[in-house]
Amino acid sequence: MRRILLMVCRNIWLVPYMWCKLCYYAAHVDKYTEEQRYRLLKSIVRRANWGGRVTIQATGLENIPAQNGFLFYPNHQGLYDALAILDACPTPFSVVAKKEVADIQFLKQVFACIKAFMLDREDVRQALEVIKKVENEVRQGRNYLIFAEGTRSPNGNHPGEFKGGSFKAATRAKCPIVPVALVDAFKPFDRKSIAPVTVQVHFLKPLLYEEYKDMKTVEIAAEVKRRIEEAIPEENL
């Protein structure tokens, strides 16, 4: 990917040090607090964004719950999505990612640092186990990000179908659901251009448990998707 090479080249004097530090943190996660690990990742991502000429434009930070124990549900555009949210979000969170990306270098180390869960979409039993683990951790005050589409949308800023099953962790944990609208997050890694790009991250008003407790998961999925679509500027569609 051309932009990744640009990120590396413009930070070449820092790359060996930061890479070694990231790998050490990933291999010794329990030596550091979640805040320390998250702070390291933010510093790396921000340096990478500078090098790759990627600007993050965040809105709605006031919508992120003050109390931990919530779930982010963004639209899914590409490999860069979680990194954009990580740059924009001041509050530590982890992710549920598909197992296919578990061994991609850099992402592998990032996932280790945030203690992410890898989901096997072909194994129903394993998926249920992941849902239970996320539910328990959210109840204990950790925050997670789940891509409800399951896979990246091939249509840029047009979200795909949000799957109801992705919201079972939220309904079981009875936690706030924070929709996140990503705009142009597919451009940094999924296009060959290295021209400057701005990625928008819009944190939307959360759905509280009292608002969705009587809804079916497919209805919650449809509502979250609707809110995200409404938040994407018309000129970006």
Notable traits:
237 residues, seven-stranded mixed beta sheet, alpha/beta, 7 strands, Glycerol-3-phosphate (1)-acyltransferase
Secondary structure tally, helices: 10
Widest β-sheet, arrangement of strands: 1-7-6-2-5-3-4
The arrangement of helices and strands along the chain is HHHEEHEHEHEHEHEHH
User: Mind telling me the CATH class?
Assistant: Alpha Beta
Shape: globular
Unreliable spans are: none
CATH homologous superfamily classification: Glycerol-3-phosphate (1)-acyltransferase
Oligomer: single chain
Arithmetic mean pLDDT: 94
The total domain count is 1
Q: How big a fraction of the residues is strand?
A: 5-15%
CATH architecture: 3-Layer(aba) Sandwich
Structural class: alpha/beta
Q: What is Rg?
A: 17 Å
Could you tell me how far the N terminus lies from the C terminus, measured between alpha carbons in angstroms? 25 Å
Q: Characterize the largest beta sheet: strand count, sense, and whether it forms a barrel.
A: 7 strands, mixed
CATH topology: Glycerol-3-phosphate (1)-acyltransferase
Helix coverage percent? 40-55%
Q: How many DSSP-defined strands? A: 7
SSE arrangement:
Elements: H1 2-10, H2 15-27, H3 34-51, E1 54-59, E2 71-74, H4 81-88, E3 94-98, H5 107-113, E4 117-119, H6 124-139, E5 144-146, H7 168-173, E6 177-183, H8 187-190, E7 197-203, H9 209-212, H10 217-231
Parallel strand pairs: 1-7, 2-5, 2-6, 3-4, 3-5
Antiparallel strand pairs: 6-7
Helix pairs in contact: 1-3, 2-5, 3-4
